[in-house]
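Changelog note: in this version the structure field was regenerated for every chain. One regenerated record is shown below for reference.
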Amino acid sequence: MLDIRYIRENAAKVQENARHKGYDVEIDELLRWDKTKRELQQSADELREKRNVISAQMKGGRPSEELVTESKQLKDQLSEIEVTLKEAEEKLNSFLDRLPNMIQDDVPIGGEELSVEIKKWGDQSTGATDHLDYAVSRDWVDFERGAKVAGAKFYYLKGDLALLENAITQFALDFVLKKGFTFMTVPHMVNSRVATGTGFAPRSSTQSDEYYIEGEDLSLIATAEMSLTGYHADEIIDEDKLPLLYAGLSPCYRKEAGTYGKHTRGLFRVHQFNKLEMYAYTLPEQSIDMHERILAIEEELWQAIGIPYHVINIASGDLGAPASKKYDIEYWSKVDGNYRELTSCSNCTDFQARNLNIRVRRKDGSVEVVHTLNGTAVSLARSLVAVIEHYQAEDGKLKVPAVLQPYLNGRSVL
């Protein structure tokens, strides 16, 4: 959520920003509800003050009929205003909840196709068997039985591919722990306040990526980011404890709404997958540097595994609501001869923290909203795709990247 004071002072900029991100929110109407709410709040405060004065006059003796009548009238007027005030607050909040975070100055403006490559690493060779064909031929994945049990785009991993996923997970976990992150397992469900507060709100009423639990105020998480954001909700963190760095391991559940026309074959885009997520709480002045730090960790990790990639600065129309800036690492696909998304990292500045009332107490005693950031260490399904494409041997076996071999009892080939 954006600071309402910032919106009042920068209405045109906020309106333009929302359109750059693809969100249809009328700032003028938002400000009208804000004005209405403030006027009603002032009226309610004035009535309460008058009622308190009369209550004081009525103490210590038998009050006059006029005071009793006036007290009742004030009570009735206050009750009416409070109902209207609540309606105005709800209307204002509905606008604020739909408003995305402000983008940083160096974010490209436009749709997904206008994202900018800023660096790349590794070879761009081609010629490999598609990961799904390869995994099926080795009896390593079963989408048919996954569909029988849960529906399309659910799957079973079997044998050596399941062990390879575990090896990647363990390597990545050790890697980020050495970078100062604290390992956490997280709830796989969050309530609506956390889901909305994290910024997982659809651009329209028909677009939602989360699975909701009918009859419960719960949704399945699309990423551990959601649970990790809610971890410090309604807390004030002392300045000297920041930054706080967490690594959350969880399944992720996604409907993949709005993905028509995108690459969806096999394990690349599925409804359930495992992911190790890095998360940081920082002081406002730390977040830009922390964003670069998380990106550097992602790059170092994937260079260690040996997967070619490039890094792109994501354009405004593909940022989503909470991110002020996002980098994607896309691996080079030897099958497609193209880059495909592998990881991402986002600076969400104070957007999520304001929603969930997460603040920092400075050494001088002042209190302000913290900044939050997130970044993928490994998204396991896509990690398997990348490794299968790049480590196929001529004899049909799969070579194991050197850094993963210790996690597979020293095996160099699968």
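Spot check on this record: The chain has a mean pLDDT of 93. The chain has two domains: 4-98, 112-408.
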